[in-house]
Amino acid sequence: TAFAWVVSLPLACCAALSASPTVSAAVAAIVASPRFIWRLGESTEGRRFTIALGLYWNLVYANFWLSPLMIAACCYAAPRRCLPPALLYGVYTQIFRPELRDSNPWRWFAEREWGYHAFRRFLQLRLHVSEALRARGPE
Question: Residue 40: which of 112, 109, 128 has the closest Cα?
Fold first, then answer.
């Protein structure tokens, strides 16, 4: 999930850049805090939910925009540790995950990502599809 990506990439960056244990612990606490502040199934009303969702989405945006830089920094600082996994991930996305080839993993992401589910519950979004549209194929 995106949560795993949001947590693992900054922590891998801390490890590759030889950050102090204090910095690594602080990064881990920050990226894990939205899941500790609010959990799926709890009310989407109130300050805890707003803080958790705001923190989570800001972490997601920052992580995804900065991920090329973080990966490059990791590969530069610790090429023996970081370059092979980065290359393997690139090969994996090209061969085994065709939806990631064009940076288009949205179906999987939209169906399983807790932040999306929480945000939809907060906005109370409902998708109304007409019978005529349902009868048509997905093409």
Answer: 112
List Cβ neighbours of 34 (8 Å cut-off, separation of 6 or more). Answer: 52, 53, 55, 56, 59, 115
Q: Decide if 73 contacts 82 (C-beta within 8 A).
A: no
Helices of type H across the chain: 2-16, 21-37, 47-77, 79-95, 98-101, 106-112, 114-123, 131-135
- Give the Cα separation of 104 and 108 in Å (integer): 10
Residue 10 and residue 27 in contact, taking contact as beta carbons nearer than 8 Å: yes
Confirm if 27 and 37 have CB atoms less than 8 A apart: no
Put simply, whether the predicted model's pTM sits higher than 0.85 gets the answer: no
pLDDT tens readout for residues 30-70: 888 887 888 777 777 788 888 888 888 888 778 778 888 88
Alpha-carbon distance 44 to 50, whole Å?
8
Rounded to whole angstroms, the Cα distance separating 136 from 100 reads: 26
36 contacts 48 by C-beta, under 8 angstroms: no
